[in-house]
Every structure is written in structure tokens, then in C-alpha cells.
Amino acid sequence: MPSFSSRTVVYKGLLLAPQVGSFYVDLRDPRTESALALVHQRFSTNTFPSWKLAHPYRFLAHNGEINTVRGNVNWMYARRRSMASDLIGPDLDKMWPIIPHGQSDTACVDNALELLVAGGYSLSHAMMMLIPEAWAGNPLMSEEQRARYLPRMAKGEFLGAFSMSEPNAGSDISNISCRARKDGTGYLISGNKYWCTFADGADFIIIIARTSDAPPGKRHLGLSMFFVEKKRGTLPKGCSGAPIPKIGYFGWKTFELAFDNFRVEQSDMIGEEGHAFYYATSGLETARAHTAARAIGLAQGALDDSIRYAGERRQFGQAIGDFQNTRFRIAEMATQIEAARQLNYFVCEQIDTGQRCDKEASMVKLFASEMAERVCSEGLQIHGGAGYTTLHAVERHWRDARLTKIFEGTSEIQKRIISDRLLGRGRN
Fold first, then answer.
1. Longest Cα pair distance anywhere in the chain, in angstroms?
2. CA 326 to CA 31: how far, in whole Å?
3. Which residue(s) pair with 204 in the sheet?
4. Residue among 42, 108, 50, 48 nearest 75 (CA)
5. Residue ranges of domains in the chain, CATH in brackets
6. pLDDT tens, position by position, 266-320
7. Which residues pair with 275 in a beta bridge?
């Protein structure tokens, strides 16, 4: 059935494009006129065809992923109590949730976009609010760097990778040994890097290297950050590397890199020399909230798959979802997920309002990642032997969830941060 509004008619169907006009006969009526027609045809790839995921929506049709979806959901929740309308009054609460759970990424953005446009924002202004320019508010980039790189970043034409970790410097950033030696108008970088994701497919790599020896007791000083532009699909000249074999996260390659007198210019430096430690750690709260959201998503995927499988799989003459053990398992999974989700909403609100929340960000990263591994393991158990095959996505959720306990600071690092804050210890 089509969805109607005062301005827009949306036709949806589990159909091929040539069949739409045959099904909706008014589209063949010569009296039908439209100022704008937005058409989207999607072949199912990673999701089973479903009505709720059918495009187009009221304002938007999109192929692929919109990486700001989780942020938009969090911001919407964070501003729920600050929204008001003289016209609607208390009936405004009836609009919630603006973004219902379980929608596609495009539907989430479309709902938020409709709200902003209805509130008086222009379409272009609203889109810039929902999908802001990359690095638009970053104070570290020079005006020349911003003018050169930001427009392409904003268009999605300029993708990056981050090279910080080393074989002996993971959680301990201050132990970075890769050196950048001064040479004329620039620097020569030599050393090894590890865990550089998307190094081959990126258009630039941000490299952290040591430009000076650290003073006694201040190992975190003396590190600098460089912006290196490169040709997509290759590694820059003076840099060699190979993908690291992984047990999960097969959607991208993660590289080990070796730099041999790799030259960068002074103009490639980001921010002030010797202060890269602060730049790298300043965004950890956001990064940990992002990792928590990723863990929650993996757990939610395992739960959704488990609920569906519990209704389909039959043993002893009935669906396994009829057994109390399975039902209780699913109830516990859902409760843990929701607890992590609500904690993450709180952390995101703190970040969004400019409040310090390093302890809380560590808490949600710790809780959500540990929860995701447990929940995905429970989901695999519900699937039984089928869960241990690659025929079901739950095994991928299980493998990928394991990584969330490691990157952006291991669970052990998060426990240290939390306990330090609670016990009044140092902030190093």
C-alpha cells in the first residue's frame, strides 16, 4: 500500500522496476503530475527482502551505509526533552520515537530529515546538519589544509586511514618508536606500524611518529602527527606493507606497514610538533561510544537472528522458541542489550553537550563489548550446530564482537581508567 502525506506520495513494493507501473495504475494516468520523482531499486544483498526496508522514503533514497546514523539517533534522543512546539504543545510527545528501532540506515536519516524540514530548515541545511562535513570542526588543521582537503572529504571522495599502533605500542601510545628525523624542509620517517586499517584503499594516511626524545617522566611528549596524501589502491612510495590475517572483520584489510626514510614536508604536520599524544587521545570518548554502538549492533543482530531461528527451528514436535530455556535466554540477551544501549545514549548526550565523561565512556565501552561477546555466544548456542557453520550470520557476529573488547582500548585498559577515576588516581 502507498504511504500518503499532504505533499508526498510514496509507492513501495517487493517488485522489479518495470512492474511498479503495472501495479500502481495511477502512475500510468496522464493526469498524474509531479514536480519531482525519486526512484530507488534495490536488490537484496546482505538483508532478506522485507517491506520495512523497501525504498524510497519521503525525502531520501540511498545505496550503501550512512555512517552518521548512530549519531543522529543519539542526538535525537538527547534533544527529546528540549524540543517544543507552540502549535502542537504536549501532543509533541506522540511523535516519539522519531527514529523507531529496527529501521534501515536510510529510513533513520529520512525520519530525522523530515523533522528538520518540517521545523523550517531548508533541505540543504538539514542535510548538512545530519551528515556534516568531515573534520569541519577540527581545530588542528591549518587553513591551507582545510581548504585543500575538506571539500573532498565532505563529498565522500577522499577517504583516510590512521597509522598509530606499532608491534610494541598498542594501548601504550607513549611507547611509539617510529621516528621522524628532521631533514631540510621536512622529515624522514622510519619504523614499523601495525593495525593500519584501510591503508590500501585510503586516499590519505595520518601517521604518528616520534620527532624528539621524550623528557624524563613524560614519555607521551615528542610525538607528532602527519597527513600523507597517496594514490588510492596503493601504498605511498617509501612505504611497504601487507595485510594482517584476521579471524573476523573481513569487510576491510588491516595492514602492517614499514617506513624507510619516507619523506613528509613540514606542511604535512597536523597541529603542533610534539603534541600528537593529546590529539590522538582527545577523541577517545567519542571513539569508545562508537565502539560501544558497534558492539550493541552486533549483539542486536545476534538477538534478531536468534528470535527468528527460534521460531523456525523445530525439535521434539515444537519450535525451540516454545521451550522455557530458549525463551529465558532470549529475555536475558534483550535485557543486556537494552542496558548497554541506554548507557550509551547517556554517554552520547554527555559528549554532545560538551561534558567530560571519560569514566562513563570507558564504562559503556567495557560493558557493551563484554556484553556483545556474551550475547553473540548465546545466539550461537540457540542456533546449535547450525550456528557453528558459515550458513548463518551469528558466527560472524560472534567473531566480530570479540574484537570490540580489544580496539579503542582493551577491556583491561577501561577497567584501569574507571578505577583510577573512582579512586582518585592519576589521569595518565
1. 81
2. 56
3. 160, 229
4. 108
5. 3-130 (no CATH), 143-279 (2.40.110.10), 283-423 (1.20.140.10)
6. 999 998 899 898 888 877 889 999 999 999 999 999 999 999 999 999 999 999 9
7. 223
d(CA 99, CA 96): 8
Beta strands in 78-120 (DSSP E): none
CB neighbourhood size of 423 (10 A): 7
Residue 140: its H or E element: none
Rounded CA separation 261/398 (Å): 41
Active site residues per annotation: 408
DSSP for residue 158: -
Please tell me whether residue 407 adopts helix, strand or coil conformation: coil
Q: Mean pLDDT lowest for which of 7-16, 65-74, 337-346? A: 65-74
**Count of CB atoms situated within 10 Å of the CB of 145:** 17
Q: Which residues are registered as beta bridge partners of 186?
A: 183, 265
In tens, the pLDDT along 131-165 reads 655 445 556 667 777 777 777 777 778 888 999 99
CA distances from 298 to 74, 121, 291, 401 (A): 17, 34, 11, 6
**Residue keyed to cell 631540510:** 184
Q: How far apart are CA 376 and CA 299, in angstroms?
A: 6
Beta strand residue intervals within 134-222, DSSP E: 160-163, 179-183, 186-197, 204-210
Rounded Cα gap, residues 153 and 150, in angstroms: 5
